[in-house]
Amino acid sequence: MTVAVFGASGQTGRRVVARLREDGHDVLAVGRRASVAGEGIRTAIADLGHSNVDELAGILQGVDAVVFAAAGDPIRIDRDGALHVIEASERAGARRFVLITGMGVGRSRPAEYHGGFWDIYFGAKAASEDGLRSSTLSWTILQPGELLNTPGRGAVELAPTGSLPIGAVSRDDVALTVAAVLADDRTSGRSWEIVQGHRPLGDAIERALGAAVDRRA
Ligand SMILES: NC(=O)c1ccc[n+]([C@@H]2O[C@H](COP(=O)([O-])OP(=O)(O)OC[C@H]3O[C@@H](n4cnc5c(N)ncnc54)[C@H](OP(=O)(O)O)[C@@H]3O)[C@@H](O)[C@H]2O)c1
Question: Could you tell which of 14, 48, 76, 79 is best to mutate to test the pocket of ligand 1, judged by most ligand atoms within 8 Å of the CB?
Fold first, then answer.
């Protein structure tokens, strides 16, 4: 399928693009500049702080699925940018959507992740999740712990929101998981936390699918 990746130049986004290509998908890499190139990769320029829904829907014509891995100003990018991309995806007829938010959305979080920036950040991410859940898209939400640039293990812990101890995860493994859930319609309607673990990804997905759907899904 053709998958649009927002935040394609980012540390996770780049890995998502590479993984999707390895899986044989065509990629539309969307960002403020053309930073990702290669066979099977088209680029589109969009600044999420300025692009409106019509412009984004134009970019997304012919796209089957969308991955949102962008981050910036929490209100303008993580919340409003994501909501615009969600609406544009519906308008353009993209069916599938994978949203990366963060561990701590929709659950209790440690004291150091409260107040000031953190309340704005988690509030913005929560609003993007709510917008996606109320869309007509077939969605999956991934809530990673702290992102690491350590090599991936191909092994993670995945579970409904609020189920796992706060932790960290390799960006490689997040990218692997994005590609895996995108290709598996059974993950539609699921919101999963993801941290590093010892469970092979396929097993982690099966286990998470067997868990009760979280209260926010
Ligand atoms: N960092 C963490 O520990 C952590 C933890 C949990 C979840 N997350 C979430 O995981 C995702 C990936 O995080 P990351 O740290 O790998 O990302 P990152 O490296 O910070 O990349 C952010 C991406 O967003 C793009 N972006 C920023 N402002 C933009 C704008 N105005 N218009 C269009 N694109 C814009 C950047 O493009 P440019 O190259 O143009 O700047 C870049 O591609 C994000 O959603 C983040 O919130 C992060």
Answer: 48
